[in-house]
Amino acid sequence: LGFFDPLNFCEGASEGKVRFYREVELKHARVAMLAAFGFLVGEQFHPLWGGAIDVPSYIAFQETPLQTFWPAVVTVIAVFEVFSVFSFQSPFGNEPWAIRTDYYPGDLGFDPMGLKPANDQELKEMQTKELNNGRLAMIAAAGMIGQELATGSKLFA
Predict the structure, then answer these.
(1) How far is residue 39's CA from residue 58's CA, in Å, rounded to a whole number?
(2) Distance from CA of residue 104 to its chain's centroid?
(3) Which of 156, 23, 1 is nearest to 98 (CA)?
(4) Residues 6+ apart with CB under 8 A from 132
(5) Which of 1, 3, 31, 88 has the highest local Cβ count within 10 Å?
Protein backbone atom coordinates (compact mmCIF):
# COMPACT_ATOMS: atom_id res chain seq x y z
CA LEU A 1 0.00 0.00 0.00
CA GLY A 2 3.01 2.28 0.07
CA PHE A 3 3.50 4.95 2.67
CA PHE A 4 0.20 5.33 4.55
CA ASP A 5 -0.16 8.72 6.21
CA PRO A 6 -3.73 10.00 5.71
CA LEU A 7 -3.45 12.74 8.40
CA ASN A 8 0.00 13.97 7.26
CA PHE A 9 1.68 13.33 10.61
CA CYS A 10 5.00 12.79 8.84
CA GLU A 11 4.88 15.92 6.69
CA GLY A 12 7.92 17.96 7.67
CA ALA A 13 8.92 15.47 10.38
CA SER A 14 12.50 14.37 10.81
CA GLU A 15 13.66 10.80 10.17
CA GLY A 16 13.80 10.19 13.94
CA LYS A 17 10.22 11.33 14.40
CA VAL A 18 9.02 9.11 11.53
CA ARG A 19 10.86 6.18 13.15
CA PHE A 20 9.05 7.00 16.42
CA TYR A 21 5.67 6.93 14.66
CA ARG A 22 6.53 3.57 13.06
CA GLU A 23 7.62 2.13 16.42
CA VAL A 24 4.35 3.26 18.02
CA GLU A 25 2.30 1.83 15.17
CA LEU A 26 4.10 -1.51 15.42
CA LYS A 27 3.57 -1.72 19.19
CA HIS A 28 -0.12 -0.97 18.83
CA ALA A 29 -0.43 -3.41 15.92
CA ARG A 30 1.18 -6.25 17.85
CA VAL A 31 -1.00 -5.64 20.91
CA ALA A 32 -4.11 -5.45 18.69
CA MET A 33 -3.26 -8.75 17.00
CA LEU A 34 -2.98 -10.39 20.42
CA ALA A 35 -6.22 -8.72 21.56
CA ALA A 36 -8.18 -9.83 18.50
CA PHE A 37 -6.90 -13.38 18.89
CA GLY A 38 -7.64 -13.26 22.62
CA PHE A 39 -11.23 -12.20 22.01
CA LEU A 40 -11.84 -15.09 19.65
CA VAL A 41 -10.15 -17.76 21.74
CA GLY A 42 -11.01 -16.49 25.21
CA GLU A 43 -14.76 -16.62 24.72
CA GLN A 44 -14.71 -20.22 23.52
CA PHE A 45 -11.91 -21.66 25.65
CA HIS A 46 -11.69 -20.68 29.29
CA PRO A 47 -9.97 -23.40 31.33
CA LEU A 48 -8.97 -21.16 34.23
CA TRP A 49 -11.07 -20.95 37.39
CA GLY A 50 -12.87 -24.16 36.44
CA GLY A 51 -14.43 -22.59 33.34
CA ALA A 52 -16.73 -20.50 35.52
CA ILE A 53 -15.84 -17.25 33.74
CA ASP A 54 -18.31 -17.28 30.88
CA VAL A 55 -18.97 -13.58 30.27
CA PRO A 56 -18.20 -11.09 27.48
CA SER A 57 -14.49 -10.36 27.18
CA TYR A 58 -14.78 -6.69 28.04
CA ILE A 59 -15.99 -7.50 31.57
CA ALA A 60 -14.06 -10.75 32.12
CA PHE A 61 -11.46 -8.88 34.17
CA GLN A 62 -14.03 -7.97 36.83
CA GLU A 63 -15.19 -11.58 37.07
CA THR A 64 -11.75 -13.03 37.87
CA PRO A 65 -9.54 -12.80 40.93
CA LEU A 66 -6.85 -11.20 38.72
CA GLN A 67 -7.00 -7.83 40.46
CA THR A 68 -4.16 -8.94 42.72
CA PHE A 69 -2.20 -10.18 39.70
CA TRP A 70 -2.22 -6.87 37.78
CA PRO A 71 0.59 -5.15 39.70
CA ALA A 72 2.93 -7.89 38.45
CA VAL A 73 1.67 -7.45 34.88
CA VAL A 74 2.13 -3.68 35.04
CA THR A 75 5.65 -4.15 36.43
CA VAL A 76 6.65 -6.44 33.55
CA ILE A 77 5.23 -3.99 30.99
CA ALA A 78 7.03 -1.12 32.71
CA VAL A 79 10.36 -2.93 32.48
CA PHE A 80 9.95 -3.42 28.72
CA GLU A 81 8.89 0.19 28.23
CA VAL A 82 11.81 1.52 30.26
CA PHE A 83 14.22 -0.44 28.07
CA SER A 84 12.51 0.90 24.93
CA VAL A 85 13.45 4.42 26.04
CA PHE A 86 17.07 3.58 25.20
CA SER A 87 16.10 3.59 21.51
CA PHE A 88 15.31 7.33 21.72
CA GLN A 89 17.60 10.21 20.85
CA SER A 90 18.66 12.25 23.82
CA PRO A 91 16.03 14.96 24.41
CA PHE A 92 18.79 17.43 25.24
CA GLY A 93 19.79 19.20 22.04
CA ASN A 94 17.74 16.88 19.81
CA GLU A 95 14.15 16.62 18.71
CA PRO A 96 11.93 15.18 21.46
CA TRP A 97 10.18 11.86 20.77
CA ALA A 98 12.64 10.84 18.07
CA ILE A 99 14.24 7.42 17.63
CA ARG A 100 17.96 7.02 16.97
CA THR A 101 18.86 6.45 13.32
CA ASP A 102 20.83 3.28 14.15
CA TYR A 103 17.72 1.64 15.67
CA TYR A 104 15.24 -0.06 13.35
CA PRO A 105 11.62 0.35 14.55
CA GLY A 106 10.07 -2.87 15.77
CA ASP A 107 13.32 -4.83 15.91
CA LEU A 108 13.44 -6.07 19.48
CA GLY A 109 16.28 -8.48 18.83
CA PHE A 110 13.95 -11.33 19.81
CA ASP A 111 13.54 -14.09 17.22
CA PRO A 112 13.73 -17.42 19.06
CA MET A 113 12.21 -19.37 16.16
CA GLY A 114 14.43 -17.79 13.49
CA LEU A 115 11.53 -16.45 11.42
CA LYS A 116 13.27 -13.23 10.33
CA PRO A 117 14.29 -13.60 6.66
CA ALA A 118 17.92 -12.95 5.75
CA ASN A 119 16.96 -11.55 2.34
CA ASP A 120 16.17 -7.80 2.47
CA GLN A 121 13.29 -8.10 -0.03
CA GLU A 122 11.65 -10.92 1.92
CA LEU A 123 12.13 -8.99 5.19
CA LYS A 124 10.44 -5.92 3.71
CA GLU A 125 7.55 -8.08 2.47
CA MET A 126 7.17 -9.68 5.91
CA GLN A 127 7.21 -6.27 7.62
CA THR A 128 4.56 -4.97 5.23
CA LYS A 129 2.37 -7.97 5.98
CA GLU A 130 2.82 -7.41 9.72
CA LEU A 131 1.79 -3.75 9.43
CA ASN A 132 -1.24 -4.50 7.27
CA ASN A 133 -2.40 -7.33 9.53
CA GLY A 134 -1.79 -5.13 12.57
CA ARG A 135 -3.86 -2.31 11.11
CA LEU A 136 -6.67 -4.75 10.40
CA ALA A 137 -6.38 -6.14 13.93
CA MET A 138 -6.68 -2.63 15.42
CA ILE A 139 -9.94 -2.13 13.54
CA ALA A 140 -11.12 -5.66 14.37
CA ALA A 141 -10.40 -5.34 18.10
CA ALA A 142 -12.20 -2.01 18.24
CA GLY A 143 -15.15 -3.56 16.40
CA MET A 144 -15.29 -6.55 18.74
CA ILE A 145 -15.18 -4.34 21.82
CA GLY A 146 -17.82 -2.05 20.33
CA GLN A 147 -20.11 -4.96 19.51
CA GLU A 148 -19.86 -6.39 23.00
CA LEU A 149 -20.49 -2.97 24.55
CA ALA A 150 -23.50 -2.37 22.29
CA THR A 151 -25.10 -5.78 22.78
CA GLY A 152 -23.91 -6.60 26.30
CA SER A 153 -23.32 -10.20 25.25
CA LYS A 154 -20.48 -12.34 23.97
CA LEU A 155 -19.46 -12.27 20.31
CA PHE A 156 -20.24 -15.95 19.87
CA ALA A 157 -23.06 -16.55 22.32
Answers:
(1) 9
(2) 17
(3) 23
(4) 1
(5) 88
